[in-house]
Amino acid sequence: MKAADAGDRFVDLDLDLDPETFRRLGHLVVDMITDYYKSVRELPVFPSRTSAEVSKVFEEALPERGQDPEIILNEWLSKVLPNTTHVGSPRYFGFVNGSGTMMGTLAEALAASVNMNPGAWKPAPAATEIERRTIAWIAELIGYPTDCGGLFTSGGTMANHTAVLAAMRNSAPYDTTQEGLQRKGHHGRFMIYMSDHEGHVSITRVADLMNLGRRAVRRVPSRNDFTMDLGALERMLDEDTSRREIPFCVVGQVGSINVGAIDPMEGIARICRARGLWFHADGACGAVGAMLPEKRSLYRGLDQADSVTLDPHKWLYIPYECGCLLVRDREKLRRAFSMTAPYLRGTLPTEYTGLDYLEYSPQMSRGFRALKVWMTIKHYGAEGYRRLLRQNLQCVEHLDRLVRESADFEPLHRPTLFIYSFRYAPEKYRTAARESNVKAEEVNAFLDRLNQRIADAIQVSGLAFIMTSRVRGRTVLRMSVCSHRTTLADIDLVFRKLTELGRSLESEGTSAQGESCCYGERS
Ligand SMILES: *Cc1c(COP(=O)(O)O)cnc(C)c1O
After folding, report:
1. pLDDT digit string (tens) for 29-66?
2. Which residue's C-alpha comes closest to atom 12 of ligand 1?
3. Sequence ranges of the domains in the chain
4. Which residues pair with residue 310 across a beta bridge?
5. Is the CB of residue 261 below 6 angstroms from any atom belonging to ligand 1?
6. Secondary structure of residue 419 in the 3-state scheme
7. What is the mean pLDDT of residues 203-217?
8. Looking at residues 339-351, what average pLDDT do you find?
9. Which of 86, 124, 219, 226 holds its CA 20 to 30 A away from the CA of 113?
């Protein structure tokens, strides 16, 4: 690298590396990545460092002078990896985080090297066509019409945002594209509907981003199996319409966040059709399950949704970021986002133009996300993907069996997809916990704290990463098994550890409280 001396006019300043140096450094990086993949099964899943400790590692003044690339790259080993939570570990079960495919890693490097921007066709002809093709493949995989529109987004939240905006642009009683929410004399609030228990918070974020107000998301009561009660939905729609509110979109959960529930989509589609509402299927975590013939019946009606969100960075194991939106009628998506400016097109239309994705979503410049999906789908094939999904389902069914056979754990639902919630609740507490009295409240409060402590303890142990959530108001252990690396042996190992932690924390709780007994602990 040439240093820029004072007075240098920078005409020759070339900050690229010479090819041989680049090759050597590239090999170094490939070695680091390979070693990482070799060790990912054994690494502590969570670094167990505080944010202050991690922040200290990166305390460093802005570099005034350039540094040696090899030294910089080696900081990946000395600073980054030791402070990393290994989402790629087979025993990482937090949030809904996919494990990251190797083809995805290679694709990311290639995509970065050419620096394509498929916001428009001209700067990225191949990237645009790969995206278009991959979207059609994903539609085909899940049984959605393959002539749909759609594109890759940063994630499910942005896919939901894009979908709900398109819903409003196409279903509102006046042209919100020009007048937004500010049409003179307009009355009535725009309303979105989703189920109360399992509806995802990203929809609330969307209502927020659209300035509809978070209260514009109406929570429809759900049934015992956590799916939306369609009778309740119709009653709510009737009530709101008679109050002159403006329902415009119903969001169905396709694989819900705590229990993997799938809303009755045929029913939602029918209700939406009859009332002129937009049916958006939020399948960020679950829609890809439709590729399994044995699960297809759960997904009946998905093909009738006006739009579908599906996150390749979840159950397709693609490295971050990668969400995806499918829209049945691509023209409706274009109507929502199309805008132009002289500098976006050039003035002379020629045969050298094509699909400009900037007309179909809020983003203008975009990354070449499609490549990692395209390459991974080609690597595994639909058949390989079905095998991986089934492996995750088997793991969850196995976990459910372990829970049901154990006297220490309480099952809370039947497994549908790859997300499973349950709680540590030894039998001796369960009868008391089911009553509705003060004692039951105390027992449950104790179990809530205990389950939280179990999750905290297993994280710090480094063996596995498990988080809690709330199901029917109680703290539960929630495992999202969407790693292509997880095996039945991992589930066994983790379940043994949970049992062991549960027992020891339970007895600690008891002894610490002496006479007031186990559920008297106050934090
Ligand atoms: C994860 C998830 C989202 C949000 O997706 P991001 O990719 O995290 O933005 C939305 N809906 C559901 C059902 C999800 O599981």
Report:
1. 999 999 999 999 999 999 999 999 999 999 999 999 99
2. 284
3. 39-59+69-97+382-523, 117-368
4. 324
5. no
6. strand
7. 98
8. 76
9. 86
39-59+69-97+382-523 CATH, one of 3.90.1150.170, 3.40.50.700, 1.10.1040.10, 3.30.465.10: 3.90.1150.170
Ligand 1 midpoint to CA 160 (Å): 8
Does the beta carbon of 94 sit less than 6 angstroms from any atom of ligand 1? no
What is the rounded distance in angstroms from the CA atom of residue 268 to the CA atom of residue 420? 25
pTM of the full structure: 0.94
Q: How far is the CA of 257 from the centre of ligand 1 (A)?
A: 8
Per DSSP, the residues of 202-248 read HHHHHHHHTTS-GGGEEEE-B-TTSSB-HHHHHHHHHHHHHTT-EEE
The Å distance, Cα 117 to ligand 1 centre, comes to 24
- Gap from CA of 176 to ligand 1 centroid (Å): 26
Mean pLDDT of 149-163: 98
Give the domain 117-368 fold: Aspartate Aminotransferase; domain 2 (3.40.640)
Residue length of the chain: 523
Pocket test for ligand 1, best of 285, 288, 324, 418 (most atoms within 8 A of CB): 285
Q: Say what the pLDDT of residue 513 is.
A: 43
